[in-house]
Amino acid sequence: MKPPFAAHTPPEGADQRWHGLKEHLSDVAQSAQRLADKFGAGELGFYAGLWHDLGKYNPAFQEYLRQCQAASESGEAEPQGKVPHAIYGAKLASEQFPPLAPLIFGHHAGLPQQTHMMNRLAQMDSAVYQAILQRANAEDIDLTIAQAASQQITPLAPDLLSFDLLLRMLFSCLVDADYLDTEDHFSPEIAAHRGARVTVAQLWHTLQAAQQALVTQVDATPVNQVRAEVYQACQAAVSLEPGVFRLAVPTGGGKTRSGLAFALAHALHHGLDRVIVAVPYTSIIEQTVEVYRGIFGQEAVLEHHSAIRPEQGNEEDARSRQAQARLATQNWDAPLIVTTTVQLFESLFANRTSRCRKLHNIVGSVVILDEVQTLPAGLLEPILSVLKELCRQYRVSLVLCTATQPALEGETPYLKGFTAGTVRDIVPKAMAKLHFATLSRVVYSVPPTEWSWADVAENVSQPDQALVILNTRKDALAILDELVDDDNNDHLFHLSTLLCGQHRREVLQEVRDRLRDDRPCILVSTQVVEAGVDLDFPVVYRAVGPLDRIVQAAGRCNREGRRPQKGQVTIFRPQEVHLPPGEYRKAFDETTILLQRENLNWDDPAIFDDYFRHLYQLIDTTDAQKIQSYREDLNFPKVADLFKFIPDDTTPVVIEYDDRAKEHIRRLRRYGLRPGDMKALQPYLVNLRNREFKETEDLREPIAPGVWLWQGGYDLKKGISIGNTAIIRDPADLIW
User: Fold this and answer.
1) What is the model's pLDDT at position 532?
2) Domain ranges of the chain
């Protein structure tokens, strides 16, 4: 039986219960309050939830719901017109407590631009608004904000930038509470599977046991001794007060495992809820997740780097396919999350509901920024601003993790970093310097003349096993063509983002097997292998690039230190230089100057501090898009539009790579996009820049909202075939 006022129509199936509007408002208010209590804004969360759907008291909206249900029962199409409802709750908020207005106004369409919202509020039908308030009042909905709620905002947001982040956090609480309550109504079977199945304490005890077992199995090599000392240092630092930490470990020093050990134990010691590991490259995330799942089990790790996104739109109707796809978006309600740096930061600066939904679950967490040196310099000021506020106000501990530490501490004319003295070293500096010297496993050489692609191919072909790393996909394909032998290419491999994730996994496994068995193996790669990928070649060739990338590449050479002689790392200058403009080019230029030094000590971690400080001076600004100014203006759409790690946005296509991919695609065609499908498709995605995406319209087919199947060429050596224009602009896409 339909209640006097409904929030949603009955779900399909046997349960024909309408979703009462008062029930929905009350439940969302209480849920949003519980989520916002984590950062001291519970009362504000309560009123945002209580008022978010006031517009559904509109008689026109109730009639719309009746038409939707009638269409569902008769099998007819749903009514085409929509009845906007968010505007009315936003109007009440603008009168009672204006900071809540944009949250309510945008709880379906996304956080708005202030002027646009105010114009819409000024144009609304006042008679309808008054009728809505009368109906809400008749149902005992509190339409006046309590003084306790209005007083919460001042201590939480002492300036405009902190105010911006507070509104984003409150918006996240509202959106997640709304989605979860709506999901519980329409899909209780999905809602029943939400929530963490393990705790931080259980993960920590499991890791302890795995570490003890590992110690008894490994050989007593210098590398393993360093790894053991790093792990012990991480445990010794657990009780330090939450804040900003630096984990400087040489490549191969075990930072993935030790960093997680610190994070879990630190979270347990201080009562934090979760650990979020953010990595820059999909190659690292695949490997990191594999390591973690080997320790904790398949279901204990939430992997979130799917690039599949439902089509954007104003989703007023929670029964549409688009809304259901959005309901399936993960909200990071898990104790261990592995994600990409892109996903983390573009969510923190987003305005769309699907991206913002997870933000409140960053509160009370340990965030590990792996390979932190890859953060784009042109966005460092807004990134560091938000990180500092997360640590100050939202109980976040931050771990800056890399062998090549950037200079992020101290305020200079070029960069507003973390306050000097507030970044604490998990591994003491003296110990870290000794570790870098102990793990000196390679000899660097720089040929005096430039090399043609033929020169590179000739040198790479001489050893049985060699890795060559290029700056761009175009260069990698050029070398690959030089090395191709019509008779025997079994030992030749290629890695770049032209390959889907499953293909990359298989290539990496085959390469590791060949290295282990001492079989011939030549790997041509972009930077996708440079950071965090466990490979151990005797010889590495690296095209001149940024200093930190060169040292990361050297970490793939003699990685385990078991060879009788040091590995050989050759840094060559290609005759053809294909580099993207901007900071990558400036980093290339700065490195070229450094390479001219006669006594450059590659094993001294201090060189990176000098290198990055000089680099930040060369870069025009660390807020290239004026993000901070737009944040102060609360221009949420503009911030979201401008804050891009990769300026040229990408759209993924699905590769029909193997039988499992074909089965997923078959089910997608038959049943549409369901919860879990996005995760299942992750290994089969290749990202196309939007320009490339538009140019290949005849080579792809839409098979679900926001999901396209690639029907063009896919080479088992080179990957996706999208023409020459697709491989010129690089390497920024490798962040994905």
Assistant:
1) 63
2) 6-188, 200-304+328-438, 442-601, 647-735
What does the pLDDT read at residue 241?
Answer: 97
Residue 181 · residue 24 · CB < 8 Å:
yes
What pLDDT, on the 0 to 100 scale, is given for residue 330?
63
Contact indicator for 54, 92 with CB cutoff of 8 Å: yes
> Measured between alpha carbons, how far is residue 276 from residues 255, 263, 303, 341, 683 in Å?
15, 9, 10, 10, 21
Identify the pLDDT of residue 316. Answer: 41
* Alpha carbon distances (Å) from 97 to 90, 91, 107, 370, 373: 10, 10, 17, 40, 41
Euclidean distance between CA atoms 531 and 370, whole angstroms: 9
Question: Helices 126-138 & 86-96, crossing angle to 10 degrees?
Answer: 80
Q: Which two tokens stand for residue 151?
A: 């007083």
Burial of 301 (0-12, 13-18, 19+ CB in 10 A): buried
Segment holding 467, helix H or strand E: strand 465-469
List, in sequence order, every residue forming a beta bridge with 304; answer none if it has no partner.
339
| Low-confidence spans in the chain with pLDDT less than 70 | 14, 282-283, 305-330, 486-487, 531-532, 580, 647-649, 723-736
Q: What is the pLDDT of residue 472?
A: 87
Q: Just give the CATH number of 442-601.
A: 3.40.50.300
Q: CA-CA distance, 398 to 76, in Å (whole number)? A: 53
- Residue 600: what pLDDT? 85
Give the Cα separation of 390 and 70 in Å (integer): 48
The Cα–Cα gap between 149 and 142 comes to 13
Half-sphere exposure of 442 (CA within 13 A, CB side): 30
Q: Does domain 200-304+328-438 have CATH number 3.40.50.300?
A: yes
Topology agreement, domain 200-304+328-438 and domain 442-601 = yes
pLDDT of residue 283: 59
In total, the chain counts a number of residues equal to 736
Please tell me the predicted confidence (pLDDT) of residue 728.
38
